[in-house]
Amino acid sequence: MGATDDPATVAFLQWALPRLGLQWKGYRKVRGTVRKRLARRLRALGLTDLGAYRAYLDAHPEEWRTLESMCWIPISRFHRDRGVFERIRRDVLPALAEAAAREKRPVRIWSAGCASGEEPYTLAILWHFEIEPAHPGMQFELLATDIDDHMIARAERGVYNEGSLRELPTHLRDRAFVREPDGSMRIRDELRRGIRFRREDLRATMPEGPFDAILCRNLAFTYFDEPTQRRIAEDFIARLRCGGFLVVGCHEMLPCESQKIVRWAPSIYQRRIPT
């Protein structure tokens, strides 16, 4: 298979993705990643080209599950999209802490599509070093989910290469990680407190709310087809507390309008508080 703009690959994805409930436009910039995975799969199956793979899919319906797994794009870094995390640190987390303090309850956050844990651990770092000192003893609960068992296992290990930390401010990086003998960086044990990882396909099931914040960035509202996006957006909103926040990717917007939620800032929505 040729370059990332290989027309055979594009034609195949435009045919296959809708059958998986995914949309082609979400894959334009990452199709090269999927192309490489397809090439490896063709070699493993002894197939000559994507036409033969289409025939194989027709003859072996169970292969669609393997194809879907090749379309998962787990791109993640600590503090990815600095402006979003700065607003979370400065405005969102303090507001959630104050509301939880008034109501004498924990702060609950869900990181949906957590990949190998960079997003939830970034939230834990911000909470531990920036918010918790002003709210000592407040319980912080963070559920992190992903469809990929391999990613969940990596997240639970909490060990990363130094490059994935490059966007995290230095003063936080130095306090949050321990350097291992091989040069990798391990998240400190105290920052794991309150975090649970589990496998979940949010197209099929979702954890029970209510949550003070839900983060689903560069997943549902990029790769899923529009009917699935609408359903997921409604389910997210239903699981948010009044005043809670939904954070999406920098280039994403919710596919539906709702009287229950308002765009609060770039990439951040807030569930309305009844008046």
Please tell me about this protein's structure:
The protein has helices at 7-16, 31-45, 50-59, 63-70, 82-103, 118-131, 149-157, 170-176, 220-223, 226-238; strands at residues 107-112, 140-146, 159-160, 177-179, 185-187, 195-199, 211-215, 240-247, 261-265, 268-271. With 275 residues, the chain is α/β, with parallel strands linked by helices. It has two domains: 7-70, no CATH class; 82-271, Rossmann fold (3-Layer(aba) Sandwich). Helix 6 links the parallel strand 1 and strand 2 (140-146).
SSE layout and pairings?
Blueprint: H1 7-16, H2 31-45, H3 50-59, H4 63-70, H5 82-103, E1 107-112, H6 118-131, E2 140-146, H7 149-157, E3 159-160, H8 170-176, E4 177-179, E5 185-187, E6 195-199, E7 211-215, H9 220-223, H10 226-238, E8 240-247, E9 261-265, E10 268-271
Parallel strand pairs: 1-2, 1-7, 2-6, 7-8
Antiparallel strand pairs: 3-5, 4-5, 8-10, 9-10
Give keywords:
single chain, 275 residues, seven-stranded mixed beta sheet, three-stranded antiparallel beta sheet, globular
DSSP strand count: 10
Mean of all residue-level pLDDT scores: 94
Low-confidence stretches: none
Tell the overall outline.
globular
Portion of residues in beta strands equals 15-25%
Helix content: 40-55%
List the secondary-structure elements in sequence, H or E: HHHHHEHEHEHEEEEHHEEE
CATH topology of the largest domain: Rossmann fold
Radius of gyration: 20 Å
Indicate the CATH class of the largest domain. Alpha Beta
The CATH homologous superfamily of the largest domain is named: Vaccinia Virus protein VP39
Largest sheet: 7 strands, mixed
Query: First CA to last CA: what distance?
Result: 59 Å
What is the level-2 CATH architecture name of the largest domain? Answer: 3-Layer(aba) Sandwich
The number of distinct structural domains comes to 2
Main β-sheet, spatial strand arrangement: 6-2-1-7-8-10-9
